Amino acid sequence: MDDREETLIRDINSEIDVVGKVVEVCKRGKELLEIIWEQLGINGEQRIKRNERFFDLIANLVNDMVTEEQELKKQVEQRVVEFSEKIDNLTEELQLPKFQADPSWSLIIRETELRKEVDVLNKEKHQRMKTLATKRSEELTLCQRLALEQLEMTFVGCPSAQQLNELSQNIKFLQDEMEKRLALLKKHQESIKRLWKELEIDPYSEFEMQLCSDEAEEKFILSKENMNKLKDLEEQLELEHRKLVGEIDGLRGKVKALWDRLEVADEERKKFTEKNNELCPKTANALKNELSRLQELKRQHMQKFVDNLRKELDALWDKCYYSSEQRNEFRPYFEAVFDDESLALHEHQVQIMNNYFNENKKIYKLIEKREVSWQNKMDFENKSANADRLFNARGGALLKEAKMRAAFEKGLPKIEEELKKSLKGWETDNETYFLYNGVRYLDRIESQHAAYEALKEQKKQERNKAKLESTKQEMVFGSKPSTTKRKAVGTPIRTGTPMKSPKRGRMDTTHNNTRFVHSSIMNTPKKTPGSEKKPLTGKQTKSKIMTSARRKSNRMRQQTRARQIAGHNMTYQHPSPSAKLNSSKSSVVSGSIVNKENAQPGNIGSYQEFSIGITSPNCRSSFVATNSSFHV
After folding, report:
1. Which pLDDT score, from 0 to 100, does residue 277 have?
2. Residues pairing with 440 in the sheet
3. I need a surface site. Which of 151, 319, 345, 495 has the fewest CB within 10 A?
4. Are 83 and 118 in contact (CB under 8 A)?
């Protein structure tokens, strides 16, 4: 049971006690009145009237009280309605949830609670209006400084919490924008003041005066228009400053060029430079005056200047690989005229050549790199063609040579590919050929490769021809004996060890270190009495056995071949030496005659076949007659 229920019970009990007391009072009063009336002797109608009056008095008193209470109730109910209406209006204005009263509340309690809620809502409204006024004032100040419009707000009576939040966010945005523009103002202000100082310019407009004011940070209007004006002003001053710097640099370049041509002393140059080293109009004027003075001196040394320019032209023509025809196009170079017009023409041509070289510097670097690589490749090929280098190779020279070859084969194609791409692009853009000493460089690359391949083929044919001629001579006259045995490169030379007896070669092989002796032409020489050999060692015995076995195998092969030739009734007609030497379709391989057109590895006969052919009855007479001068 809560407090409210206890109060209600107490009120009911109180009402019950009051009624009993009233009845008791009325009863006692009536009894006293009856005694008084009895003593007074009031009876009949008078007593009836007095009883009615007693009742009327009590009834009127009760009625008056009831009337007063009813009036009070009406007032309370009216106030409840008014408070409810105010609460509804305030909650609507403040955009708050609608207030819900407790149904168990009595009128007085409802009135009290509604009055409290109205007070709370009024305070909230007052606080919001106060916050609105403060924020609006702050917003107005920022908007005036930034030249921006205030946030548009629409509300009735009081702004909502969301609207106040939006207003706070807008103020924060304006504050951030204010800070950015202030920082930008300081940056532009410093840059503009510095440029004014370097350009020796004083502010003259009202806008520029405001910018230079000490109160610019507090009072300068940071509107977008003013910020754009600051940016434009800074860009204009920077443009003027760049023009001034460019003018000064150009004047210094011209002055320096004239100093060099006039061979002005270093002390005089240093003195002038130290005095005029700032980037300001004063320096430009000083350079202009110095240039005028030097140009006057230049007129007095015209021929010297023209000669110097011609030297520059020669260097530029060499760097650009100009041919004599291209150089002859500039006729003033070859004329003995030294005046202002000739000097101007030479200066203009030097400028043109400088620009042309600078624009194509990348291509010229590639050309130079490619020419060096190509020349190194040719020198390497010429060096590698010399076989004598193999006998003098020491310290891994052959390995270095192989690495160099790999580098050329890998690096040169990359350079040429990049160069061709650049040249084709240049020719497409300029609609003309890129010349190198009067020749299109792309054609030069192709012609060099074609000449290189032709030279390789020529050397190959020469080697083949020399080899064929050597083989033919060995066939007719015998191989040239060699006094020393050729060793492979890098074979160590043994010292202090007795040389082994040379191994005998096969009968069907022609060696350069033996004479042309064949068992089918001459008989084996007989042993002489003093030709008995000494006892052999173990290694010599093994070598002797291998040599005997090889000779036996060769004799068996000769006999087999002879039987094959005899069985097929083949008649061998040996060509004359002149026919062999003049034949363009034959070749000699290991002592055999082979037709080039149908030469196959299986068709090349051995030297025994040749010897068996000459020992046949039909060929011996022809061979002896043809080679009567042949001897061993």
Report:
1. 83
2. 435
3. 495
4. yes
